[in-house]
Amino acid sequence: MAFIPAKASAWFEIPVTDMDRARAFYASVLQNDPVLEESGPNPIAMFAAQDRMASGHVYPGKPAAPGTGPTIHLSVAAPIEDAMERVRQSGGQVVSPAISIPAGTFAYCLDPDGNSFGLFV
């Protein structure tokens, strides 16, 4: 029998080399301030979400080579072009145009550590 979960994704982690820079970058781009938590073995900065079981965080780690790791898509408010501009202004890179699909609109980006991520509206 196949296991079919309620959500395909349960959690994500984004490795970063500079926690302060990463928190500032994602707070600016997503307009969602990652909250620093230091209760575990490593500091993490949690993304705010209504459903914490489908959320994630940034943590000190070794990112994959630029653009080669998995790509997660992060929710932003419309219009997506505003978020794309915040990526550029905050030290990241937009690597695709906005792409419309039936479920919404997304764009591929790289954060300052080279982590691949998508913006999704």
Automatic annotation (TrEMBL):
Pfam name, any one: Glyoxalase
Gene3D superfamilies: 2,3-Dihydroxybiphenyl 1,2-Dioxygenase, domain 1
Domain of life: Bacteria
InterPro entries for the chain: Anthracycline_SecMetBiosynth, Glyas_Bleomycin-R_OHBP_Dase, Glyas_Fos-R_dOase_dom, VOC_core
Domain VOC residues, every copy: 8-121
Transmembrane intervals: none
Protein name (record): VOC domain-containing protein
High-level lineage: Bacteria, Pseudomonadati, Pseudomonadota, Alphaproteobacteria, Hyphomicrobiales
